[in-house]
Write a structure and sequence with these properties.
Helices cover 45% and strands 11% of the residues. It is an alpha/beta fold. The chain has an 8-stranded mixed β-sheet, with helices on both faces. Strand 4 (79-82), helix 4 (97-107) and strand 5 form a beta-alpha-beta unit.
Length: 306
């Protein structure tokens, strides 16, 4: 029987997932609160600037039915995937408003026994402390598998032709073993890469935070070394080239005017805040954020001197 999937959030994460599911022959619904996005997708036009997605949407025109009303698609769906933004606010505190609103909306229409996957980047404990209570309000007990709840942190690099969504390995962790298995089976249906089952939903939640925090810390390290080498009259790029000849225990990162992309500059704040809630002070993460946040000013100062 044809599996039906509803993806909540038609942005840089949700839309590629929807396209992939449609390419694999699944019946796909795209849910978004932005009517303009919905209309564009239904017309076969991408609402995001991505040549690959634009081409895919043109090729699968009509195979993704976009909607703004969850009652049109969530009750019919075997799988519901939440891919909404999880930004930080002006004080760098995690803002889970969109996630809570999405889960609340879905919980009122999701079918008993459906698989609910959160792909949005979240700190460890979010599913258990925020998602499950919302489901319980609608009388769903995830520990009894009324709804199979799991987290599969998104991994996507927009525009990357080598590492496409279907070729990047994924990790999953569920509230129950059955939820983990069900989520893993689903992702194995749609991607060509390995799917690793973790022991808990918290481990899956922590994975994405670890990945992006790793990059932020290493970028901060090389940014600080670049500033030090500037004073010493040493070319940091030449040093990185030299260090990269070592075949083990070194991974090149490069300095820049801050940190590029959307996730790396904000995800460490999720772990900083979670640590604070647990009574732990992430000093290393805070220092890395301070260094990287200072780089735009440093880059401008360098230009002024030239």
């Amino acid at each position: 029987m044809e599996k039906t999937v509803a993806i909540v959030g038609m942005g840089y994460v949700g839309l590629p997932v929807a396209c992939l599911c449609a390419e694999k022959g699944l019946k796909v619904y795209g849910l978004d609160t932005d009517k303009n996005k919905v209309d564009l997708i239904n017309a076969g036009t991408s609402p995001i600037k991505d040549e690959i997605i634009s081409l895919k949407l043109n090729n699968i025109k009509g195979k993704i039915k976009a909607a703004t009303n969850p009652s049109e698609c969530v009750p019919k769906s075997d799988v519901v995937i939440v891919c909404v933004p999880t930004p930080v606010d002006r004080n760098n505190a995690p803002d889970l408003t969109a996630l809570m609103e999405a889960v609340s909306s879905v919980s009122k229409h999701i079918s008993h026994g459906a698989l609910l996957v959160i792909e949005s980047t979240i700190y460890p404990g979010t599913v258990e402390e925020i998602v499950l209570p919302i489901l319980r309000k609608q009388k769903f007990d995830a520990y009894r598998n009324d709804v199979f709840v799991a987290h599969c942190p998104e991994r996507i690099d927009p525009g990357n032709k080598k590492w496409a969504i279907e070729t990047i390995p994924r990790v999953v962790g569920g509230i129950t073993k059955e939820a983990t298995k069900k989520a893993a089976e689903f992702y194995r249906e749609i991607i060509e890469a390995n799917v690793v089952e973790l022991s808990s939903v918290k481990a899956a939640e922590a994975t994405k935070i670890m990945e992006n925090t790793f990059r932020d810390i290493n970028i901060a390290f090389v940014n600080e070394m670049a500033r030090s080498f500037d004073k010493a009259g040493i070319d940091i790029l030449e040093v990185i080239k030299g260090a990269s000849t070592k075949p083990f225990a070194f991974m090149p990162h490069y300095p820049g005017a801050g940190v590029g992309g959307h996730c790396i500059a904000q995800d460490p704040y999720y772990m900083i805040e979670r640590g604070r809630q647990l009574g732990f002070n992430h000093e290393f993460l805070k220092i890395a954020r301070q260094i990287n946040n200072s780089m735009p000013h440093y880059a401008v100062d360098c230009l002024k001197m030239k």
